[in-house]
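Exercise: predict the fold of this chain.
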Amino acid sequence: MDPCDDKVLETHQALARHDVANLEGLVLAHVAPGPYTLVAFPLPLRGADASPVRAVLVAE
């Protein structure tokens, strides 16, 4: 995604314009290779444009 010190956030803006959600900070290093479905449950924060999520991988 965009660098941490980026004030413009072009990539974030481009994704938002196309209604594409992005997940940052997922640590998947210990997940075995294979097909999964990723489900993300965001917190219902009023007035926010982002939220922490409970991310769940479901093995297929």
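Check your answer against the key: The longest strand covers residues 36-42.
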